[in-house]
Amino acid sequence: MLKRTFYICALIAGLAGLGTGSARAVTVDVFAAANSSSGGTGALTGISLTFGQAFTVSAELTDLWNAGPLPRWSNADGLIAPLDATGSDDSNEPSGTTIGSIFPLYTQDGFTAPYGSLVGRIGSGAFFLIGTNYSNTANAAGQLALYYWDSNNGDNSGSIAATISASAVPGPIVGAGLPGLVMALGGLIAWRRRRMAAA
Fold it and tell me: What's the pTM?
C-alpha cells in the first residue's frame, strides 16, 4: 500500500512538472523625467523574458506625460499628432488648449522613435517602440525595462501606467517533470503486475 501511495504521489508531481509556468501581469509607473532615455534610468518591470517569449504592453490612450513647455503633452505613442486639453486630463490646462503637437523623431543609440513615446529594452538588447499597445516576442533575454523617449529629461513631467503581460514559459519538464512521470508510471505498472501475479 505504501509503494502504491508513493507511486501515485510521484505521478502527480510528474504531471505538475509537465505544466507551464503561469502567465504573469504587472502594472508599472513609468516617469517622463526619472525614466527618460536621456538622463534617467529605465523603469524595471520585474518581468524577465526569454528570447522569443511572447508578451504585451499597454497604456491608456488618455494617460499623458510631458516633454516640456507646451505643446509637448502626449500619451505613450509620443508627439505624433495634435492634442487638445479636455479640461480634466493630466495637463490641467483649460479645455481646448493645444497641449500636444507633431515633433520630429529622435534617434539615440541607433534607434529612432517619436519624442515622448514609451520605449522598451530587454536586458542589454536593442531599444524597441512600445507606444500605447504592443504585442510581440522578446528580441533578447533579460528583464524588461521601460523608458520615456527623449533627448533631455530636465523639463519632463508626468507618468503613465504600463501593464505588462508575459506568456507562460515551459515548466521543469526536462529537469524534473518528465523523469518523475516516467518513474511513477513504471512503478505503478510494476506494482500492478506483482498484484496480478500474486492473485
Answer: 0.76
